[in-house]
Amino acid sequence: MANTEGSSFTPPGDGGQQQNQPAPAGQPLAVPPPVVPPPVMPPLAIPPVAYEQMFLAMMAHYMQHMAQFMPMFQPPPPPQPQPRIVTFKMLKDNGAEEFRGDNMGEPQIALDWLEQMDRVLKNLRVRDADRSELASQMFRKGAYDWWKRIDQDPHTPKPWTWDRFDRAFTKEYVPTRYREERRDEFVALKQEGIYRFDFDVIQVCL
């Protein structure tokens, strides 16, 4: 007699999805398709000549790029040598003497002072632009008053050079007659064939 009641058997499953069932006997197992790797392209062979040209082009581009920034990275210029500072003590230690200008009757004293001052400044390697200022530091009393007067005169050519200082000093402290006598003496010595390199004689004759 057939059972008319509902069967309590429930087929196995997972929420309505059928599980993989083993293949029936006599049928081959399903094999997944093989995984084929993507083809690998061989590296392009660059001819040596083309590679060299490419390298040179890259270097040229790099150098051009760096040249744009070179002004920004230039090293600072080397420091300029500082001018030598000559002090009053250095002048005295090297033989410079003070000049007062109170021996107007003995112009040779003024010429001797000028010769000695020129020698000291040369030994100290003083620039021509600084020589007059340093020489004036040796003036005292009347000589210093004369220097202030002529230096502050608006008609005095500036800047001072040693040649201008020499001429102004000689004009003030060596009378014209004395200079003419020394010039004549120099000419006479030259005509006699006597060459005496006397600084003060040559100076007043120039």
UniProtKB/TrEMBL annotation:
<feature type="domain" description="Retrotransposon gag">
    <location>
        <begin position="134"/>
        <end position="191"/>
    </location>
</feature>
<protein>
    <recommendedName>
        <fullName>Retrotransposon gag domain-containing protein</fullName>
    </recommendedName>
</protein>
<feature type="region of interest" description="Disordered">
    <location>
        <begin position="1"/>
        <end position="31"/>
    </location>
</feature>
<feature type="compositionally biased region" description="Polar residues">
    <location>
        <begin position="1"/>
        <end position="10"/>
    </location>
</feature>
<feature type="compositionally biased region" description="Low complexity">
    <location>
        <begin position="17"/>
        <end position="29"/>
    </location>
</feature>
<dbReference type="Pfam" id="PF03732">
    <property type="entry name" value="Retrotrans_gag"/>
</dbReference>
<dbReference type="InterPro" id="IPR005162">
    <property type="entry name" value="Retrotrans_gag_dom"/>
</dbReference>
